[in-house]
Amino acid sequence: WRLVSLVSLLALLLGGCGKAFQSTLIPQGEAAKMQYDLLILSTSIMVLVVLVVTAIFLYVIVRFRQRKGQENVIPKQVEGSHKLEVIWTVIPILLLLVLAVPTVTYTFKLADVSAANKKTLDEGTSVVDVTARLYWWEFAYKGEKIITSQDLVIPAGKKVYLNLKGADIKHSFWVPSLAGKMDTNPDNANQMWIQADKAGTYNGFCAELCGPSHALMQFKVRVLNESEYKDWVAAMQKQDGKSVAASVQDGQKVFQQSCAGCHAVDAKDARPAAARIAPNLANFGDRDMVAGIADNTEENVKKWLKDPESMKPGNLMTNKYGKLSDQQIDALAAYLESLKLGQ
Ligand code: CUA
Fold it and tell me: For residue 11, is it within any domain?
């Protein structure tokens, strides 16, 4: 257990590098805890087996080594031993049982997404359609009828069911602190649930090599206390992106002319999933990151608008907005940062 705490400490140090949290070894919710327990159990059993086998092996090498003056002595030859055969059959069976019982139990618990598949969802059941695209994430809340991107906001202490799909090619949804990886496929949907014990922000990643910006295909999971979450949902349902301060109306005009064809600023975006080809920006000003990778400052927004390719190679916005003047970009950045829920 000292080794376990050492590894955990190391993970804590490494995990502490960023602002948000990420470590499989420090699970922050029920699903991640089950997976962590299985990881520790199976590793412990493997280490135990290696240690015992190595000890026996070393003992045999030393005990039956060739001694001086006995070069031609052949040790006692043994053929068949019921006792030994029983021992080396029963011990592996017991070890496999110790491994199999929790593995099967947890696998069924983790795979239970029946609550998400009812025709009418029970009151308070959260289901989110997650769509992975080159190189960003969309989150569409089924019951709440709101859409957002890049920040998955969930309530603390509650199971949130996810329907995972890839819109273009195969990606993989991974929030190390909250659950193991799950592929997002274009052809068939996968389902999982996540749950976070405490409020906080957790890092999420794409875990399937998908192109030049695979490593930059990041997102956040923002966990709010239940009442904060309810307020967030209510504010999102009201967000239509129409009324903005007079100071950013120039930027709003630029947005409507150049960006609105692909990006929505309405959190209830009525277009079908296939038509939502660019990230929804309804609460852009509240987000931690620009394009999932740079701190959300006006400076970085401008950098992104000017040359997205330099920040995220191969992304689909690349070079389409080269014609905007510096003045337009300044106005646009101010407008985008003003898109807040005002909570
Ligand atoms: Cu998407 Cu890697």
Answer: yes
| ipTM at complex level | 0.98
Cα–chain center distance at 107: 19
H or E, element range at 182? strand 179-184
Quick one: 338 exposed, middle or buried, by C-beta within 10 A (0-12, 13-18, 19+)? middle
- Ligand 1 centre distance from Cα of residue 211 (Å): 7
Question: Which ligand 1 atom is at minimum distance from the Cα of 166?
Answer: 1
Q: Domain for residue 147, yes or no?
A: no
Q: Name residue, tokens 């089924």.
A: 142
Question: Could you read off the pLDDT of 8-61 as tens digits, one per residue?
Answer: 666 655 554 445 678 888 899 999 999 999 999 999 999 999 999 999 999 999
Is residue 326 included in any domain, yes or no? yes
CB of 276 closer than 6 A to ligand 1? no
Query: What residues make up the domain containing 251?
Result: 246-337
Q: Is 181 near ligand 1, meaning CB less than 6 Å away?
A: no
Q: What percent helix, strand, coil does the chain show, rounded to 5?
A: 40, 20, 40
Count of structural domains, the chain: 2
For residue 136, how far is its CA from the centre of ligand 1 (angstroms)?
9
The pLDDT tens digits of the residues spanning 266-325 come to: 999 989 988 899 999 999 999 989 988 999 999 999 999 988 988 999 898 865 656 789
The answer to the question of residue 45 being in a domain is: yes
Is the CB of 216 within 6 Å of ligand 1? Answer: no
